[in-house]
What does this fold into?
Amino acid sequence: MTVDEYNAATGDILNKDRPVERYIPPDEVNMEYVPQPIYKLVRYNSPPGAPELKMSTKLKFDRKFVCPGIVSPQKDIIVYPVVYYYAENQCSSGELHVIPLDKNLPVVERVLLANTIKENQTPILETEKDISEKFILRTMTPIDFCEDASLLVAKEKVGNINDGVWQTDIWVYNFRSNKAIKLPEIRQAIKYYWFTHEGIQLDDKRWDIYPLGFKKLTNEVVVSAYAFTGDLPRYLGTWSTDLKGENVKLLSIDNVNVKIQQNGLKLEKAGYEDPSVVHNQSLERKKEKKKKAKLKKKEELLAKKNKKKELNKKLKKMRADERKILRHMH
It folds into this structure.
């Protein structure tokens, strides 16, 4: 082996090129019936604005929590959120990562087999990483794709571990230009509207926006706004903005439903396989196992027989050579 061949064989392998082997249960495991879940793909942003991160207390122990992601309408990538926890100041930050999906596999299977080892290392969206201020929580959550999956709208939440969410900001990622766009103009427009029309200074109130997704037939981002000043939240209108933040519009002040796109997908458990099917599969595995054991035993006997035959042949030749030498000696 030459030096170049050695370097080529021992060089670093990129994560995206690493093979991810499937788990195969050991042959000796006898499973009569283990519930086998069945999955299907359903709309991710249903109802509009519903996506939220579902984290557990494991975040404080593992320091990192990977949340379920959103599958593109073309089913070729999955975007998933990651939350990092910093124990020293009890604060967090968030990122969105992309995993390319294997198009050679069936749709549900390619999503089930998506592995973070295949992720693109650079996040497409991320919160600030400043951990100097205690108890600050920052997360990034995907909301939905546009119809052709060239755009992804997401929300960044900033809050306090003891005081809840302070503010939600809108981000849009453009997969064609690989650029992230923040849209703070819509919050400014809402504050301006309520100050000029009602004299309400929203900065003195507890209020926030709730991104709903992309407006039907357009790629405008739609949000609902609410103020929390009493027992019941006060509706501040449904608003939209273009991708440059230059055209903010009030769509409804009376909580009239606005049609929102629902393009992204997610995995959902659809039930379990029929126990009889699993039982029959178990019987088939047992038959296959017996068949393989029988074939293996047959091959071992044949190999043993051939080995013995070869040994006898060598012994016969050795005896013949020995007799021939003895004849020459006499």
User: Anything to note?
Assistant: Helices lie at 3-10, 58-62, 107-112, 185-198, 275-329. The chain has five helices and 15 strands. The CA atoms of residues 188 and 329 lie 115 Å apart.
